[in-house]
Every structure is written in structure tokens, then in C-alpha cells.
Design a protein that fits this description.
Two copies of one chain form a homodimer. Chain A is an alpha/beta fold. Helices cover 44% and strands 13% of the residues of chain A. The termini of chain A are far apart. Chain A binds a DNA duplex through helix 1, helix 4 and helix 6.
Chain lengths: 380, 380
Amino acid sequence: MSNDSLSRHFCITNSIYSTLKRRAKRESLAFVKRSPDVSKKIRLKDVADYLDLSPATVSLVLNRSPVADSIPKRTQERVFAAAKKLDYRPNLLARSLRKQRTFSVGVLVPEISEGYAAGIMRGVEHHLSQKGYFYLLASHRSKPDLLEEYLAVLKDRSVEGFILLASRIESTPELPAVAVSSHRQLEGVTNVVIDHDLAARLALQHLKDLGHERIAVFPGAPDNADAEDRWRAIRETAPRLGLEIRPELAIEITGEDYGGGFYKGGYTGAQRLMASGAPFTALFAFNDISAIGAMRAFLDAGSKIPEDVSVVGFDDIQSAAFHNPGLTTVRQPLREMGILAAKTLLERLSNGSPGPDVVTVKPELIVRGTTGTAGRAAGG
Amino acid sequence: MSNDSLSRHFCITNSIYSTLKRRAKRESLAFVKRSPDVSKKIRLKDVADYLDLSPATVSLVLNRSPVADSIPKRTQERVFAAAKKLDYRPNLLARSLRKQRTFSVGVLVPEISEGYAAGIMRGVEHHLSQKGYFYLLASHRSKPDLLEEYLAVLKDRSVEGFILLASRIESTPELPAVAVSSHRQLEGVTNVVIDHDLAARLALQHLKDLGHERIAVFPGAPDNADAEDRWRAIRETAPRLGLEIRPELAIEITGEDYGGGFYKGGYTGAQRLMASGAPFTALFAFNDISAIGAMRAFLDAGSKIPEDVSVVGFDDIQSAAFHNPGLTTVRQPLREMGILAAKTLLERLSNGSPGPDVVTVKPELIVRGTTGTAGRAAGG
DNA sequence: CTGAGCGCCTAAAACGTTTTAACGACACGA
DNA sequence: TCGTGTCGTTAAAACGTTTTAGGCGCTCAG
């Protein structure tokens, strides 16, 4: 029985087979012609039937495959015309399944923040969209397990690679990855970083020139991937400039989930600084957001900026220039860094080359109103 | 010939067919067992071969299909165990292709901004990720043709629906869509909006209580989807409160691409306002960003806030509280609006129901330091 | 008259799932 | 002995592409 049914199913003579096919072709053709708009969605096969060609031919032509070179100009034009007329749009899921390419990458950020992440993402988005890529975005709120999970889920979703912003990643992902402001070098992961030594020099030299000696710092939050290196650079640079970073003036702060972000961290950090009683005339904050939070605390405490205390930020986020006074800060070229990260990743994807270990960009000091000559030491 | 080859190809007797199959099964089984880690990527078929079951069975069990009810517990356990042991992860492209579901939506924003969009997106992301959805993000920079193009491209990428933030959309998209702060009602598009009349009343009443009569406004940028309604509400509400919005105090501003955003628009708007010579004691800005830009202009011109001029913003973005003085503003519950938008869209997707035409949320007045009793009219 | 080569096109497999219809085996009642 | 039914399982089609290997019908040289 099973033998029979199997045979019956498959062993059709060629002529019958062809006839059946022709009929099917004519029918579906008629359908398309009768109601070109009702038809749910035009597939490659619909275009092929409409032209009395095979899907293979149409695909070859539309994709400008070298194999299609031998197909006469006339036919090619017919194909293009039909595709246009029927408004054929290839099903990208099917294509991706077959070609094993999705033209999408995963972007992981600690949080969709107002400052840093938004700046980088603008660059990433710009470059990716220009190259026909899309990205899936996920925020892991600096939780290592959430980060790991998103890496896996995004891989399941067939992204071709990752861009990791300020994320503490522990091991090389299973897909090509580019990190921005990562805390350490990982085998095979290109890292786009700011030149922290230059950044520290710019900020500290500026403060020294204004006569500051007692400089407080926010070394940064432990869950922020950039913190360690930035803090190391400050510690190493200060003595070279004849400055001393006193332990009692280094205040740990944290960025919090949801709402405040680093604003609150900066605010309470500044309060603790003032409460400590240690004298200081300037603060080099971890980033603009924490600098702005700290400013609020100084002002609330009756201190004047920059008369009583100077503040230097880091990043130069959009709003930095619009605070009162305008925030003096070390600018990171965020948008460019985003573009750089995207570009590096896409090159890795097409070359297959591992790419550079590290790409360094230069910071720039933007002097605005929050820094002035050192006065009497505040807080003492 | 073709007849023959076709037959030769298909007309294998059942027994041979089975034998071949068995052999293949044993081989691939052996392969898996010999080197379970070398094998590129575990497919459903690999799990099936490992268990000497068919892919169908494994799929049925893993997906807890009702059809699998008749499969004995013992087998089901074996299937789950094998899937776990081999670390099987289904190929979502293939699944999506077959099921015609992708569990992803498209999110369109004018720009990845520091304020409004970031706030909403936080909500959107929160809800979507909780429900196992992902989103593709695109920014159209308020260009209608770019918006249209992204709608098409995202549809090509098989998103199941759209969330549109503050976007001027002209016609109902071909997929279920939810708009946030859209300018007008579109057939079949749920609109999540703030109660603009209440918002206007809160702000204007507050200013009136402080004795302000000459109140300047930024009616908003023509390319911002929210502007019209907000402006209408102000025009209608003012007379009810016994206030007059003088035409010469209504200043058109624009949000610009890249960099500045509305900061610059607010800054130059305030400059034009002052230059016009028309007296005013307060400004109700279009949003926080433009309010902050305007503040900068007032301060640069030597005006004091709020002594000379009071400023009210709109949105309550994160940084609003940290400006100096703190910005008095009409809060939109941005995160909640994002969650609401996502939730509404997902319900539409699962119900198939068209969903409500409009979902209204309530604003709240947050009084901080930029508003005070009206003094002498500035600018006059 | 044959065989090679070319021009044009296509069959069929492949990508990795889901799902429907049905199959074999066995039990049970008539 | 013959349905009838249930149980456990599966073949095969389907989703919509891309791509390889090759087919068919010519022409033209030998």
C-alpha cells in the first residue's frame, strides 16, 4: 500500500507533469491579471508566472547575478518592468533564511539615556541606515546576566554582529563585535575609546592654569565600563602636572536605573563631598550628567559656580552648553564614535577580517562658564 | 530521457527509501555523538536524529502543541532533555517564515533626541522586551518622504506593526499602528495623546496666579506633530482664564537636524522675542528643550529668571530639574505613554481588534524655580 | 551527419521551521 | 473476521527566496 501510494504520488509522466504545471501557471496568471490589487502579496513566483518565466530567472535578473549575463537585454527589461508594475517586494525573511545574511546588528546599551548613549546611537544609526542595515536595540541596565541574555536572544534573532556601548562584557561574544568605551581589551573585540590620558591632561591642565590645587573627582561608577581607565588616567596624569588627587576628594558615585541616571549620583556625591569637610576648589566629574547633578548640589548649598567651585564635565552632551553657567567639559566626539563603531563592525562583517584591536579618538576641551580662577577653598 | 530521470529520481520503492533514510539517520547520529561541539549549529533535525524521532514530533513537543497531547510523558521528557543537552535554539528566521509572525515592531522617531523621544522609548522598550518583542528603530528627521520610506522598508523587514512618535503621518499605514502625540486622528491608528486643554490650563493658570498678563508662547514647529493641538489649546484656554495671547508674542520656532535640536530654536526664538520690543513677563515654551534654549538667551541678555521673566516648559525631561534655576514645566508621563503605546499595539496584534481611537493621559504641573511673580515687563 | 559549443532558461535543492493529514499497530466490540 | 477507534508518530507540504547543475534547441565546424 505505502509502496503504491508513494509511487502514485511521485511517478507522474513528464508530459502530465508539464501539463499540470502549465495549467497552474495559466490559472494563477489569470488571477493576477484579473485582480492585481486583491492578491495578498506579490511573490517572486507571481512575477515569474506573469512573465511565463521561472522564479529562478526572475531572481537572477533582479539580483543582477553574473549568471544573468547570458539573459538577453529584452528579457531583463521585461522582468524589471513586471517587478515594478506588480510592485514586487522580496520577502526578506525568506531571503535571509536562504542567504544566511540578515543585514541587521544588535546594539546593547546600559540605558536609553539622555546623554552619552543618545549621542553614540545617533552616529550608529546614521551609518547603519546608510548602509542598508537595521539594528535591534536592547538596554541591559548594567546587569551582567541581562547583558548575557540579550546577547543570546539577539543572536537567536540572527543579528550579524554586536555594538556594545559602555557595557561590561566578560567574554568574547560568539559574533563579531565592536565595543565603545569598553573597560578592557577582549580577544577579537574592537574597542573604540577616547584617549583618556589626553582627556585627563586637558582637564587637569586647565584647572591647574586657573590655580586649582585641591581638585575633587568622581572616579565613576563601578558598573560603568569606562570608569577604570578614566580614573587611572587621572591618577597618573595629576602628578606629572604637579597636582595631587587626595583620596578624601575622590568620591565614588553610582548611576541609578530609571529616572535620575547619574544626575542623582552627582547630586549626592557632591553633598557627601561637602559634608566631608575636606577643602576643594574644583570638581572633575565623571561625566556631564554627574557634573550637572553636582552643580545643583553646590548651588543648593549656596556655593557659587565658578567663584566658589569650578566644575568640569565629560562628554559634552547637547544640553551642556545650555546649563547656567555653561558647562566646561571634555568633549567626546560621540556621534563620530558611533559612526566609527558601526563602520568598523560592517567592515569586519564584509571582510571577515578581525579588525583592529582598538580605535582611539581624541577628546577636546570645551571651556564654558563653570570654570574660573581658584578662590578660597570651599567645603573647608 | 527526462521522463526516465524524473522517474529514477522519485520512484524508489518504499523499502529502499526507508533503508536510505535509516542509514542517513545513523550517520548523522554518529556524527553528532562523536563531536557534539564541532557541529556548526544544532537544528531541529539534529535533535530529531539524535532521538531517532522525526522533526515533526520534536517540534510538536517543544512547542507544547495540543497535538502533542497524545505523545507519552516519557517521550516528551526525552525530547526536552535532548534539546537542553544539545543546546538547541530554534532558528527564528525559519520559524517566522513559516508562521508569518516575527514578534518585532517598527518604531519611528523624528530624532534620537535627549529629551522627549528618549523618555517615550524607555517605556516602549520596557514593555516590548517584557513581552518578548523587539523593535527596529529608525529616525526620519521629520522628512515626510523618509518617513514613508522607512514605513515601507520596515514592512519589508516583516515588522508586525508600528509605533510612531511625534511623526506627521499622512495616511494609515498598511500595518497596525499606534501613534504617540500625533497631530490628527487617522482611521485605524490609535493615538496616545496628552490632554492639551488641561496642560494649557495648568500652565496658564499658574502664570496668571503669579500675576502674569503678557505671556509669550512658542506655538511649536510646523514639522512637529504635536504642535497644532497644543497651540489650539492655548488659544482657546487663555480667554477662558481672562488672558490674552497677543499675536506679536507668539513666536514660531523650528527644531533643527543634528546637534542643537530645539535648543537653538528656543535660543533664537527668545532673541527674536526680545528684539521685537513687545513687552512680556513670561514665556510658555513649546517644550523643555526650547525653554532651556530660551533661558540661555534671556540670561545672555542680562535678564534674570524668574525676576525679569518666568519660563514654563513642557515634557519634564530628566534634566529639567537640574537646570539653574530648576525648570517649571508641564510634565508629560513620557515613560507611561511609551508603555501605553506598546501595550495598545500588542493588544491590537493579538486581538486583531482595531483598538481605541485615542488614549488620553493627564499632564501635571511641576513648579520649580523658573516661575515667579510678574515684575516689570521685560523687553518693552 | 555528428558533436561541440553557445544562448537562454529552468528544475530542484536548500535554508529550518510548523502543521495537517494520515499511517501502522494494536485493542476492543460485534 | 471485520470494522472502529485510539495511540504514537511521521511524511510531506508549506513559507519565499537563492543558486547550482544542467537541459533544450540551435548553429557551425569537421
